[in-house]
Amino acid sequence: MEPTTYGLEVYRFQPRRAAVPGYLLVDVAAECSEGRNERIEWGYSTVSCSDGVLEVSINGAISVTLDSAEARLLREDYMYMVTGKGLIPIEVRRPGAYMRLHNPRGLKTPTLIINGIHMHRIVGMDPVSDARAKVAAARVKRGHVVLDVCTGLGYTAIASLERGASRVYTIEVSREVLALAELNPSSKRLADRRAVIILGDASQVIGLLPDNSFDRVIHDPPRFNVAGELYSSVFYREIYRVLKPGGVLFHYTGEPMKTRGHGRGPIVRGVVERLRAAGFTNIHFNDKAQGVVARKPRSL
Fold first, then answer.
1. Where in this chain does the record put each Methyltransferase domain (predicted)?
2. Looking at the DSSP assignment, which residues form a beta bridge with residue 126?
3. From edge to edge, which strands make up the β-sheet containing 91-94?
4. What domains can be seen in the chain, in order of their start residue?
5. Roughly what angle, to the nearest 10 degrees, separates helices 127-137 and 155-162?
6. What is the edge-to-edge ordering of all strands in the sheet holding 291-295?
7. What is the rounded CA–CA span in Å between residue 223 and residue 202?
8. Which of 142, 171, 219, 220 fits a disulfide with 164 by CB distance 3.0 to 4.6 angstroms?
9. Where are the beta strands (DSSP E) in 155-213?
10. What is the CA radius of gyration of the chain?
């Protein structure tokens, strides 16, 4: 499938080597404050302290120095971009929206925060393990063509490639989110030629995709109260249409409002009911991946 044939915009992902985790900067700055010299290499960045001055460099080229007062302002759960003008938090601020890479100490890979909400599960697991659990629940296998709805930092698309998917089409509505992903070292495999990023509103894009095109669909939308259209009967019917017969859908839901009523909460129960009405069968909740798995029948 060539997305441009269907009038879709393809985003060219270009990883940028400019990021360094805040906790690393904070640790070296602490050594500085004690009068000790330190040097730590992290990926393509080097953080060092000499004679009370903190220096950060990328590939030995771009270099930034901070005095003790500047170093005290650093936040350990942030990711910073090294530029010729200094260290800049990797974040987006605009009216009605705040996004940033969040990388607290002990987390293997950064997650994305949008308006205070974590886009990955980080309690008891890291974001990449979260993505791999979703891909495993979808039973992605070698040679599969996968549709990934809501790219984010791209961990689900990357995990699908790791399991042997021959092609992953991933839809993201926000250029800003993709710009943050380009600065995230753990997202660099989104530049793989097998990953095709479609820029657009998933509720509109999916209607332009051809019938019976995907072996697997992994649907990881924002919360219901943020993007209700991605939980609608109309959207589920479109997923059903683009899945190949026998194809599997994994729909991340979490377990919101689980305590209301018996069993799963009303949002999960509503998802199950609408998927069944759309024609899906073998519908069940996967506890490990925290979402609903459903299958399109092989024959109708």
1. 146-247
2. none
3. 91-94, 97-102, 111-114, 117-118
4. 19-89 (no CATH), 125-295 (3.40.50.150)
5. 60
6. 9-11, 195-199, 167-172, 145-149, 214-219, 243-252, 291-295, 281-286
7. 15
8. 142
9. 167-172, 195-199
10. 21
Cα angle, residue 250 at apex, residues 248 and 254 outer, rounded to 5°: 160
Rounded CA gap, 287 and 121, in Å? 13
Is this structure's pTM higher than 0.90? yes
Residue 42's pLDDT band, with cuts at 50, 70 and 90, is confident
The mean predicted confidence, pLDDT, of the chain is 92
User: What is the maximum alpha-carbon separation in the chain?
Assistant: 74
Strands 19-21 and 79-83, by their bridges, are: antiparallel
Alpha-carbon gap, residue 190 to 188, rounded angstroms: 5
Stretch 113-134: mean pLDDT: 93
Going by pLDDT thresholds of 50, 70 and 90, the confidence category of residue 235 is: very high
* Cα torsion angle, 121, 178, 219, 109, sign: negative
CA separation for the pair 231, 235 (Å, rounded): 7
Q: What 8-state DSSP symbol labels residue 261?
A: S
Q: Could you tell me the pLDDT band of residue 99, with boundaries at 50, 70 and 90?
A: very high
